[in-house]
Design brief:
With 408 residues, the protein is α/β, with parallel strands linked by helices. It has two domains: 255 residues, Spore Coat Polysaccharide Biosynthesis Protein SpsA, Chain A, CATH 3.90.550.10; 150 residues, no CATH class. It is 54% helix and 18% strand. It contains 14 helices and eleven strands. A nine-stranded mixed beta sheet has the order 1-2-5-4-3-6-8-7-9, sandwiched between helices. Strand 1 and strand 2 form a beta hairpin. Helix 5 packs parallel to helix 9, helix 10 packs antiparallel against helix 11 and helix 11 packs parallel to helix 14. The radius of gyration is 28 Å and the shape is elongated. The two termini are 41 Å apart.
């Protein structure tokens, strides 16, 4: 007999939380939360590994298997004293999101039930939690990798390359961002706010932990090859799997770092553009043997326009992903609707005034224009920047309202 603790209706499919007989859902220190699908070959031994690891670590714990199996996986879990959360098959990220109301621990350990990660040795994770860590990554490269456990393409190319990219972008020092075993405090997990439905949730977690500057650490772990009779996800998908994984991870990295790329590049382009445009507004300039003419000014207009657009898109990206709330709060206090509209009007009017002289000569000469003046080019730039400011102000207001609704 098992106890049905809770049932929710979600997307027309019931979520059932089943506890072993005579189990009381008390608060615990650690929750081991594992998505599983058709793992009857390994899940029984995995449960025993978890119980051994909990005993060694000296911690009170909950073992919660988030299950969408069609085999005997949930039955085996309950027989070994674990909790089962029956959920629809919607992806690994969704499984973790579904589990949130049922997690009772202040610390959470995530992983797989396939016996590739040694849950008998979770004591180092618990020790890191007790020392104040908010996010803990396992590291196969700082631990050990059983022969045949990791494809060579992953081990020597894919994982090192994506590690290097992430560490350069986020100024972090992770050695194995794709490791499947990781720990996070409940408070930190709420701040991370997983949104990815599929397995790319793993990259999202690492990236957001870096962006949020969580107190992070790494634990060396042992990585074993699949048990006989079980095929890993990558083997089931085929040769495309590692390339697809790399592409998806790169996408996640760029999405959550879009603001950094765009803001820095945009600032450089804007400065270059304004220097050229303002410096040549009165006419050509010669510095030594180098002459700066109308063509250089057109380059300046292009750089300024692209730079200003990049900055605006970068700001919107930072507002929308919400990983820097203090920045967003300061920005909202500074960049109000009224100020944006006044700036937009000021830039546009100044630009139209400068273009007015060109228009006057155009009309005076019978709708013919012999040459475009430098002040007129500056006026054109100001009109463009004014319109961009107008559009940006409106989009900021839309973003503010969307964020406000999501928090209600």
């Amino acid at each position: 007999m098992h106890v049905l603790q809770r049932s929710l209706q979600n997307n027309a499919a019931a979520i059932e939380h089943v506890l072993p007989q005579d189990t009381t859902p008390d608060d615990v220190e650690l929750s081991i939360v594992i998505p599983a699908m058709n793992e009857e070959i390994t899940v029984g031994e995995f449960m025993e590994w978890c119980k051994e690891g909990i005993e060694r670590a000296g911690v009170t714990a909950q073992i919660l298997i988030v299950d969408s199996s069609t085999d005997n996986t949930p039955k085996i879990v309950l027989e070994h004293g674990g909790e089962v959360l029956r959920v629809p098959k919607r992806g690994v990220g969704s499984a973790y999101m579904d589990s949130l109301p049922y997690i009772r621990g202040k610390w959470i350990l995530m992983g797989d039930a396939d016996l590739t990660y040694d849950f008998r040795e979770i004591a180092p994770f618990v020790e890191e939690f007790r020392n104040g860590a908010e996010f803990i990554m396992g590291s196969r490269f700082r631990g050990s990798i059983q022969k045949g456990a990791m494809p060579k393409l992953h081990r020597y190319f894919g994982t090192p390359l994506t590690n290097w990219i992430l560490n350069r972008i986020y100024r972090s020092n992770f050695s194995d961002i794709h490791c499947g075993i990781r720990g996070v405090t409940r408070e930190a997990l709420d701040r991370i706010n997983i949104t990815s439905r599929g397995w790319e949730y793993a990259s999202e977690m690492v990236l957001k932990a870096a962006r949020l500057k969580l107190i992070s650490s790494e634990v060396p772990i042992k990585f074993f090859k699949d048990r006989e009779g079980r095929l890993s996800h990558h083997l089931r998908v085929g040769w495309r799997s590692p390339w697809l994984a790399g592409w998806v991870n790169l996408k996640v990295m760029l999405v959550y770092a879009a603001d950094s790329f765009l803001l820095k590049a945009g600032a450089v382009l804007l400065v270059i553009g304004l220097v050229l445009s303002l410096g040549l507004a009165a006419g050509p300039v010669r510095i030594g043997r180098i002459g700066f003419s109308l063509y250089w000014m057109l380059l300046g207009v292009t750089c300024a326009t692209l730079g200003y657009s990049s900055i605006q898109i970068g700001v919107l990206a930072r507002v929308m992903h919400g990983l820097k709330p203090r920045f967003v709060e300061r920005l909202q206090n500074i960049m109000t609707y009224d100020r944006g509209m006044i700036a937009s009007a000021g830039l546009s009017v100044a630009g139209l005034v400068l273009l007015g002289n060109l228009t006057y000569h155009y009309l005076k000469r019978g709708l013919q224009l012999e040459a475009i003046s430098h002040p007129a080019i500056l006026g054109l730039l100001l009109v463009i920047l004014g319109f961009q400011t107008f559009g940006f102000t409106l989009l900021m207001e839309v973003a503010k309202r969307a964020i406000s609704r999501s928090r209600q």
